[in-house]
Amino acid sequence: MESSPADHAKSEPFHTVTPLLESWALSQVAGVPVFLKCENVQPTGSFKIRGIGHFCQEVAKNGCRHLVCSSGGNAGISAAYCARKLGIPATIVLPESTSLQVVRRLQGEGAEVQLAGKVWDEANLRAQELAKRDGWVNVPPFDHPLIWEGHTSLVRELKAALGTPPGALVLAVGGGGLLAGVSAGLVEVGWQQVPIVAVETRGAHSFNAAVEAGRLVTLPSITSVAKCLGAKTVAARALACTRESKILSEVVEDREAVDAMQRFLDDERMLVEPACGAALAAVYSGLLGRLQAEGRLGPALASVVVVVCGGNSIDSRELQALRAQLGRS
Ligand code: PLV
């Protein structure tokens, strides 16, 4: 008997094996070969589909009848996409500031959209309420072992493409799910010595605040334009990773993230949202060069991988608006 599309969706991964591109332009800036792990070309526009796809498949096998996901945007799009493929209805709860294009995309995936609160933490409270309903399952955007396990596939792909470990890996931190998954992946493939440069924007720097304090810290508010990095408190697992991997927690300014978005668009002809601009700013703002000069990345950096985490909450008009807001035009 042939299996149904929904049965197929329970076993085949939802994510794509993404390209690893050597960037001439970013290598020129960094002074070492820079490789881009292009998560922006995932079917849902961000790496989120790796962990969320894995989570949704597991709960679908266990009889989940409705998925609910609170999100700054990208996790929600991944959850809605997976739900459609699995034939399960989905409700996505987002902050009121969410862009119309993200809402439209979610509706296009067939999801019900609810707007609640000013930031993700408030939307999350609403999602947790909804998930109490019979048969409903909450999809955590970053704080769950299945999410981290799903994200590890990114590192296996890096190992397959590169063969030898890079000198450093740069990624953005929101709630810390990507960091936790990449850190676990590095251990899994025997690359735990690779330093991770974990970047946040000021005003969404809950990981940096936790690292500095040595315990979880809840920011009073999210003031950065990188709303998808805006979890007021990171997952406890993200902080625990600092004991297992070499993690350098770094904070960039919003204007550096937005400048990086503009330069990346011109250099590589790819448009990403501020959450991803934060990671790219590690190269463009000179942060990586500074870390290298200070000897914090080992003696000779052979290469760098930047996780181009992607993001849907951006278009040319929004980039212009961000530039104007930050006095960059
Ligand atoms: N965004 C989450 C959490 O938002 C979301 O709901 O979509 N880069 C992009 C493009 C992202 O969308 C996110 C997370 C991150 C980086 C950070 O990933 P994390 O949360 O796993 O550290 C509030």
UniProtKB/TrEMBL annotation:
User: EC number(s) per UniProt?
Assistant: 4.3.1.17, 4.3.1.19
Decide whether keyword Lipid metabolism is in the record.
Answer: yes
Q: Which gene encodes it?
A: SDSL
Q: Which cofactors must be present for this protein to function?
A: pyridoxal 5'-phosphate
Task: Specify the protein name.
Answer: L-serine deaminase
**Pfam families listed in its UniProt record:** PALP (PF00291)
Family annotation (PANTHER family): SERINE DEHYDRATASE-LIKE, THREONINE DEHYDRATASE, MITOCHONDRIAL-RELATED
One annotated GO biological process:
isoleucine biosynthetic process
